[in-house]
Amino acid sequence: MTDLLFVITAADHWTLADGTRHPTGFWAEELVEPYRVFSEAGYDITFATPGGRTPVVDEASLAPDAAGGEERAAELRKALDELEAQLSEAAVLDDVDADDFDLVFVPGGHGPMEDLAVDERFGELVRRFVESDKLVAMVCHAPVALLPAFASGGKWLFEGYNLTGFTNVEEAQAGLADKAPWLLQDRLRAAGAVFSAGDPWEPHVVVDRKLYTGQNPASSRPLAERVVTDLAQA
């Protein structure tokens, strides 16, 4: 059986450039769709969050216009309700051992911009996954969690890697680019990544070695399906 560490932000806000707190959390589709894909593949899934806190959904991701209609929004909310017990019992991220898992997956939402972006302990965990030649997958804003991951010599672990994530264009269209303290695409490029931007809001998945990244919510299921396919063929 494949053991998956499913790491979710515990933040309920994102601190904007002016110091105000923008309510957020994880993005519903980015948790629900990959969870379905991994569950259907028979993976043993362990949820973990910083501090073991119960993760909070970004309510904006359940609005009909963002979710894809009233019916889709209701479907996502129902799926999260069914996962409520598991999410409330999330493991403490700092207590997790990379040796116990075959891969790690992180969904986005703006929450990771607040906590995982600066979580040095999680950065160390990611390093252990990479050095053990294990798969690391992140979607939308979640690749921000790669920033605290450094090799033993101090070099950023993903320098020169091809990857993707939520783009500047998408952030602007979402209405937060002008308020953000910094943008994901800019920060990843400045760190040394080769950032690939597909069409806004369309599925876009990038694979480089054992790093799998998806650009936006629409990339959630394609990313998870690519992970499952590649692991099955390994």
Annotation keywords:
234 residues; alpha/beta; Rossmann fold; two-stranded antiparallel sheet; globular
| Corresponding CATH architecture | 3-Layer(aba) Sandwich
How many separate helices? 8
Radius of gyration: 16 Å
Number of strands: 11
CATH homologous superfamily identity: Class I glutamine amidotransferase (GATase) domain
**Major sheet description:** 7 strands, mixed
Q: What is the percentage of strand-forming residues?
A: 15-25%
Overall average residue pLDDT: 98
Domain module tally: 1
Ranges with pLDDT <50 over ≥5 residues? none
Strand arrangement, largest sheet? 5-4-1-6-7-11-10
Strand-pairing-aware structural class: alpha/beta
- CATH uppermost class: Alpha Beta
Q: What separation lies between the terminal Cα atoms?
A: 14 Å
SSE topology string? EEEHEHHEEHHEEHHEEEH
- CATH fold-level name: Rossmann fold
Measured as a percent range, the helix fraction is 25-40%
Overall, the morphology is globular
